[in-house]
Structure formats: C-alpha cells, structure tokens
DNA sequence: TCCAATCGTTGTAGTTCTACAATCATTAAC
DNA sequence: GTTAATGATTGTAGAACTACAACGATTGGA
C-alpha cells in the first residue's frame, strides 16, 4: 500500500537533494541565483518592480537592488509604465535572453536517471505528473 | 513521444516551484534553513565537523559557526572524538530531535495533489520513482 | 625523531538577503 | 480640490553565507 508521503519523499529527494542546480547556475552565469530567477521572470514578459518582488517573494527595496544590478550588467532595461507614472516596466535585453538560455540549459537538463528510463515508464510518469 | 526533459520540467516544477518548503521550515523552527539541514544530518548519526561541512557543501569555518549556534541552543553537543583528538563528534540532543521532527513534519507532508491521486497512479509513480 | 598533513578554530572581508523606515511622485477615492 | 493609498527609491541595520588566511594541536608518514 503506497502512501503519498513515500512518493513525495522519493520525488523531493530526487529533485532537491540529488539534482539541485542552483550553485551550478550561479557559477555559469556569474550571478546570484535570485538574480537569475528574476531575469527568468522578466524574460517571460515585462514586469513592474512590484510584480517582480511579489514573484520573488522579496522585499521591494531589495527588488530594486536586484533590478539595479541586472540593469547595470545590461541584462534588463527599465522604463516608464505606459499607464501609470508611479510604475516602471522592466524588460529583458538580448544579452539578458542569452543569460536566461544559459541558465535554463542547466536547469532543464534532465538527470541521467530520467534519460535512462524506458519509454513506457517515461510516458507513464509524464501522464501522471500532468495530473498533479 | 515523451522526452526526459519534459518530465524533468514537470517534476522540478512540482517540487521546487509549487511546493518549496524552506521558508516554512525556517519560520516554524526559528532557524535558518542551513541549520535545520545540519541538524537533520546530525540526527542521522553523530558526525565530525569536517564530515558535516562536506555534507552541507560549506566552508569549514562556517560549519563551526553553524555548530556553535546549534550547541548554544542546546540542540547538539560536541565532544572529543573517540579515536582522533583532532576531531570533534557532534551529537544531537533530545531538544534537537524535536526540532528535526517538527521540520520533517513540514518537509515530508505530501502536497494535496499527491494525496488526491488514485491508488493505482500513486503505486505506479512509486514504482517508477524507485527506479531513478 | 622530524616533517607533512589534517582538524577545528578564530578572524577578516565581502556579498547576499531580510526587515524596516522614510520620502517623493503619482494615482484613486471622496 | 483634498486626502488616502500606491509604487519605487534610498537608506539603515543586522543576519546569513562565501572565501580565504592563519594557527595550534594532533596524527600519519618517512
């Protein structure tokens, strides 16, 4: 009789303990992980600083510092919001996109164990994961 | 045709993005997550400071500080190693065990989505996860 | 026995991150 | 038009974390 706890432990053990990628991403991009995270949100669509701080679950002043650092490195631009002069809109640059690609190449690379699964099991895993 | 990348993205999205527990554990225990992590390693068996710093992938001086903090809070004890006078052996206290239990109750609680899976899918997921 | 290596500690310096205060400009509500 | 609320910024303070240096005590190796 399988319990959800057992499955959860297996899954989190696999993803968080055995295949944790934060350090690797930070080294490859020469950016603290939170800045990569911010950049990835910005790459999805332009965001305001308030939105970004909510997404990152960070304090607004710290978010300002994060964006400052990204802007300084030429990875984002910051301009007035088209509808509200209190807000700024943060947009990714081409250089920023390249950093995101590099980070995601690392984050998204499946662990060898997954690649070694037979196609049936993989498809089954996919089907079940999509239900969650 | 399912790719390992797709499955990996689903899995890491589920565990890391949607069910990340570090903040919750830190709040519940009033300890930075790395200290809870250290405590959990120590709870498995007594360790030396060198072993702990390797497990945590931390700098030895910082590991000393971590253990200092835990010791100060009465969660671990530190004593001479039985076989090597250069080493210290760090052992968990009863109070420490209670903190570990509290942390693991949070870490190990399966997300609602998993609990809502039907038993067949759950058992299948279990079977496949054990192959990884 | 002497020298090299190891262990844990103390310390320095800097970066990252958290929490909070205060301020000014802008917008929303009345 | 006036007041309250919102958004971003600047700033302060402290904790968490990283990297490195140096050192004394102990152990291993020659």
Q: Mind sketching the topology for me?
A:
The structure is a homodimer of 132-residue chains.
Chain A: H1 4-17, H2 22-29, H3 33-44, E1 47-48, H4 49-56, H5 60-72, E2 76-80, E3 88-92, H6 94-108, H7 112-115, H8 119-129
Antiparallel strand pairs in A: 1-3, 2-3
Chain A binds a DNA duplex (30 and 30 nucleotides) through helix 5.
What would you say about this model in short?
The structure is a homodimer of 132-residue chains. With 132 residues, the first copy, chain A, is mainly alpha-helical.
Descriptors:
homodimer, 132 residues, mainly alpha, three-stranded antiparallel sheet, 8 helices, 64% helix, DNA-binding
Structural description of this entry:
Two copies of one chain form a homodimer. In chain A, helix 3 crosses helix 5, helix 3 (33-44) packs across helix 6 (94-108) and helix 4 (49-56) packs across helix 5. Chain A has helices spanning 4-17, 22-29, 33-44, 49-56, 60-72, 94-108, 112-115, 119-129, and strands spanning 47-48, 76-80, 88-92. Chain A has a three-stranded antiparallel sheet with strand order 1-3-2. The radius of gyration of chain A is 18 Å and the shape is elongated. Chain A contains eight helices and three strands. Chain A is mostly helical. The first copy, chain A, has one domain (15-129): Orthogonal Bundle (Arc Repressor Mutant, subunit A), CATH 1.10.10.10. Chain A starts with a helix and ends with a helix. In chain A, strand 2 (76-80) and strand 3 form a beta hairpin.
Percent range for helical residues of chain A?
Answer: 55-70%
Number of domains of chain A: 1
The CATH architecture of chain A would be Orthogonal Bundle
Mean pLDDT of chain A: 94
Tell me the span between the first and last alpha carbons of chain A. Answer: 20 Å
Query: What class would the helix/strand composition of chain A place it in?
Result: mainly alpha
Assign the CATH topology of chain A.
Arc Repressor Mutant, subunit A
Number of DSSP-assigned strands of chain A = 3
CATH level 4 superfamily of chain A: Winged helix-like DNA-binding domain superfamily/Winged helix DNA-binding domain
Shape of chain A: elongated
């Amino acid at each position: 009789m399988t319990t959800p706890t057992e499955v959860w432990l297996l899954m989190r053990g696999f993803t968080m303990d055995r295949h944790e990628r934060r350090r690797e991403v930070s080294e490859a991009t020469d950016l603290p992980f939170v800045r990569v995270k911010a950049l990835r949100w910005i790459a999805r669509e332009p965001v305001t600083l308030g939105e970004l701080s909510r997404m990152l679950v960070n304090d607004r002043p710290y978010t300002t510092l994060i964006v400052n650092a990204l802007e300084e490195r030429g990875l984002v631009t910051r301009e007035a919001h088209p509808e509200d002069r209190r807000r700024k809109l943060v947009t990714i640059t081409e250089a920023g996109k390249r950093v995101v690609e590099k980070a995601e190449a690392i984050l998204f690379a499946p662990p060898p164990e997954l690649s070694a699964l037979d196609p049936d099991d993989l498809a089954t895993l996919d089907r079940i994961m999509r239900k969650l």
